[in-house]
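Field notebook, page 417. I keep forgetting to write these up properly, so this time I am using the form the group agreed on. The chain and the ligand, uridine-diphosphate-N-acetylglucosamine, are recorded exactly as supplied. Prediction of the bound pose follows.
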Amino acid sequence: MEKLEVVGGKKLSGVLKISGSKNASLPILAASLLSKKKIKLINLPQVKDIKTMLTLLESLGSRVKKVGKKTIIDNINQKKTEANYNIVRLMRGSFLVLGPLLAKFGKAKVSSPGGCSIGVRPIDIHLNALTKLGVNIKIVDGYVIAKAPQGLKGAKIRFPKISVGATENLIIAASLAKGTTILENCAIEPEIKDLTNFLFKIGCNIKWISKRSIRIVGVSEINEATYSVMFDRIEAGTYLIAAAVTEGNLKIKNVNPNILRSEIKILRKIGSKVRIKKNEIHIIGNKNIRSVNIKTAPWPGLATDLQAQIMVLLCRGNKKSTIQENIFENRFMHVSELNRMGAKISIVGNRALIKGNTKFAPAQLMATDLRASVSLILAALSAKGKSVINRIYHLDRGYENIEKKLKKVGAQIRRLN
Ligand code: UD1
């Protein structure tokens, strides 16, 4: 089992380039299944979740080729409609192939993704919305078996709750449905806007008609196209927090600062100096971190995927802070490990009460989920001395070259086998 050794206490300083977005690439790769031709994608991050999605596409009959910076998805012979448990269980994002397979073939069998460490993570919103497009759904032996022998039919659907994945699955499915679909109460995360920009580019008839509503008129054919995926805002946010937590000085490049405005607002509130240029954010961390009370929310609110990282920062705050987690019911897995490093955090319902004034002490740590893993690295970077983080495979699911990037800006970090 691979581990990371971090010798903390060093201020990070220098320039970091942010990779392509994992959470934008996954639905775009799934949507490439709509095509019967070739789709060329640029800026896919080199992380395990993307490899898993490419393996899934290959298992469905797509041919995947890398030519220079481009990943080419060739769907000329893509005919299979069954997404196997052995791949889907590795990553919940795999469930996004349900929409495009149904739209293209009128049938699909996709393993149910199940729960995961951050919560139950049901799929009821995806399935109920698909039935409104004329899909018959049965669950047999852990598989979702979905059929629409007459093809999908456009409908007006209001999501009962904001869901990123359900919005993506439905937007993709409706793109080849007969007639017009209106989706209301959509998630509007930047990754969803990236997906709709991609769909527009491959010839879908798609238009945002109000803040959370989209109109999709089904088309019968998809064009070939080349598309460059947006930057990873969670990776960018993580490195901004790394600078703040180590009192460092980092320039984060290849970003759109406007997309990180909630996070920048918090960083400024806690006392970091943040300067913004067109595609760059420059942050200078300060010694005295001010405490704040924050809550996660769907976009444009604070991303739940940055909650664990911000918690590390608030442990160093000068007073008490609170974080309210409004998206997932069990997303405080990092708390017990942070407490082992000297933090004083207690959980009451969906709120973490953080005492502040923590000087992190190095420790042997166990990573749980993707963002929890990276929060432990941030705490270890702040702790003077050697920490070892075990079970880091989650980290490789979502962070491209994390040790290399952190080393480049002065962190002492290495991978142990
Ligand atoms: C996506 C992101 C994940 C991020 C999350 C919230 C990807 C690959 N993953 O996950 O990194 O943390 O958005 O921003 O992009 N829910 C239901 N029924 C459903 C679907 C969701 O009750 O059918 C609930 C979930 O349990 C959760 C909430 O809705 O409490 C939001 O989940 P959702 O937005 O769907 O998250 P994901 O798309 O799984």
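OBSERVATIONS:
- The mean pLDDT is 96.
- The pocket of uridine-diphosphate-N-acetylglucosamine is lined by residues 23, 26, 92-93, 119, 121-126, 161, 163-166, 187, 304-305, 327-328 (CB under 6 Å).
FOLLOW-UP: compare against the apo run.
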